[in-house]
Amino acid sequence: MTPTPRGLGRLSASQQGALAAALTITVWTSFILISRASAAHTLQPFDLALLRSLGAGVILLPWGAWMVARQRQQVGHSSSFAGFSPLPWGLSLKLGISGGVLFGLFSYSAFFMAPAGHASVFLTGSLPLWSTLVAWIWLHEQIGPRRALALLLILVGDAVVGWNSLRQAFDGSGVWRGDLCFMATAFTWSCYSVMIKRYQVDPVRATIATTVVAFFILVPVYGIASFMGWISSALPQAAWTEIAFQAFFQGGISVVVSGLSFTQMVRHYGPVRTSMITSVVPATSAVGAVLLLGEPLHAHLLWGLLCVTLGILGGVWAVKPAAVKSA
């Protein structure tokens, strides 16, 4: 059983869920804005993915080794990856590849090709769509008419923004590639969230296992690919302050803090309702992109955000009766 900090132990289950939601929304909004702003600096997408893994690994690898050492005193314990992951090999790989490796590579690549406003629509805005489809296929969750209509609105919002990107492609724009990467990121994260629900993994072990797998895969692959010249790396040219900040935020905050809060949300609300709640991030990140990054809010993006927001509200309204009945 995962230990709970004394301060959180005084909170009720609903209060812990609300706190986890607030932390997740704040960090996810900051993740979109900071990651997009990073495209104007020295580091490249693979550099950011590596620093995300290293920054989180400094905290979570020792934590995982300590947890595995304690598990060995229990009957039937299971660990993997040289005693750093407290979960079995198969489950660690599934969580680590979907929520760690693929998420990092797809998302950072997207931020270098598309603006933060598109991340608001295609990344966080598409989570309810993908999580519902994955949960429908894997967990056999039912999709009622109201939820289907809500998901259709989200799909319309994606289509409005995506169609404009495709039209710009004829002028040589590569924004559509970033949109596809954002969609792929949303899909991999939805798979990760549904797996947490499916296997009932607690937040600490899920986050540790994801980080361990990403660390064991990305570090050697990055070293080989960079040495052979297969990827573009600017790590030697970057200032130490930029490297330290990205490792701290992308690893320590975006992985550790957000990872624990998000998985706690999944356990409390379920994967679909969690995705609906976190999808307020399209509005907060889009406004932040306008105010902080100076991105224009074009009509097609505004309509896309409106459709996504209406879809989110409709989705929350559709699943609310089931949540009350379950409680």
Structure characterization notes:
This protein has 327 residues and is mainly alpha-helical. The protein has one domain. It is built from 13 helices and no strands. The protein has helices spanning 6-9, 13-38, 45-71, 89-111, 116-124, 127-138, 145-169, 175-199, 203-228, 240-269, 271-278, 281-292, 299-326. Helix 2 packs antiparallel against helix 10 (240-269). The radius of gyration is 19 Å and the shape is globular. The protein starts with 5 loop residues before the first helix and ends with a helix.
Supply database-style keywords.
single chain, 327 residues, mainly alpha, 13 helices, 78% helix, disordered C terminus
List low-pLDDT spans.
321-327
Strand content: under 5%
What count of domains describes the coordinates? 1
SSE succession: HHHHHHHHHHHHH
Averaged pLDDT, please?
A: 87
Helix and strand content put the structural class at mainly alpha
**Oligomeric state:** single chain
Number of helices: 13
| Rough outline | globular
Tell me the Rg in angstroms. Answer: 19 Å
Brief synopsis:
By secondary structure, the protein is mainly alpha-helical. It contains 13 helices and no strands. The protein has one domain.
Topology:
Elements: H1 6-9, H2 13-38, H3 45-71, H4 89-111, H5 116-124, H6 127-138, H7 145-169, H8 175-199, H9 203-228, H10 240-269, H11 271-278, H12 281-292, H13 299-326
